[in-house]
Amino acid sequence: MRAVDDAAIRAAAEQRFRSERHYALFEYLRSAKVIQALERAGVRVGGRILDAGCGSGGTALSLAEESDCAVGLDLDARFRGSGTSLAREKAVPNAAFVQGDGTRLPFRDGSFDLVFSHSVIEHVRSAEGYLAECRRVLKPGGVLYLSTAPYLSLAGAHLPRLLLPLPIHIPLGRHRAFRVFVWLARHAPWALQERREANTFIQQAEQGLEKRDDLLELVTVRRLSAWIERSGLRLLRQDRHVTGFFRRALPGPLRRWAERAPFLQDVMIGHVQCVLERPA
User: Fold this and answer.
1) For the chain, how big is the Rg over CA atoms in Å?
2) Dihedrals φ, ψ of 77, to 5°?
3) Which residues contact 139 (CB under 8 A, 6 or more apart)?
4) Helix-strand-coil percent breakdown of the chain, rounded to 5?
5) pTM (2 decimals)?
6) 239: Cβ contacts below 8 Å, ≥ 6 apart
7) What is the pLDDT of residues 202-216, one digit of tens each?
8) d(C-alpha 279, C-alpha 110), whole Å
9) Fewer CB within 10 Å: N-end or C-end of the chain?
10) Mapping DSSP to helix (H, G, I), strand (E, B) and coil, where does residue 226 land?
């Protein structure tokens, strides 16, 4: 999937939480932007690819269209009723899905040319264990594309947003803020920006379910750098993307200083992309 259709992506984004099938279609459409980002970062999309945390499976299907084969792996097997059916609909025969743990990958050493990891490392129980497994299954000279977000940023907090846009996870702490949003979803959903269709907090509250906090690793820019340094992977490129609010609000010199300051950088940076290579 290479053609970027912004209108279709926006429409799919609004519907993505209705079902796993809707989310898989959103991932598939959005993947055109992901592939562009990979290529801008100098990553060749081809050979054997592992999507190590594939969610509903839409991105794995798109990667399969550009490669010899792609395998999507996820702990919760969300792909079973979504990625597999979308693969049939899109006639993608070289995609496969496996249920498994990213910290114990069920593949032989050196099985893949490219491992793709988008917004996964913050959801595993051991970031270092996950990186070690990604390195193990890469061929020598193979590439890991890793993207994540610092947990103090709005994107990295993985929380809904209040009607009054206050980042309460910063003064309260991420875990306490999570409990606040669970309570609001149950008792005052009107206080949240996202509508029910785009808010799993509200959906689960209406079903009487207890929302599970799946943010298991609190990513910071410094922690991420330390994990990478100890992983045995070589960092080829890292891009840090400051959120639009801070790009507009801070003059250039002040913004560049803040981007290098501990704590401030973790609030301002909403997306980190890394290209890592397993040394030959």
Assistant:
1) 19
2) 50, 40
3) 110, 111, 112, 113, 278
4) 45, 20, 35
5) 0.91
6) 41, 272, 273
7) 989 889 988 999 999
8) 12
9) C
10) helix
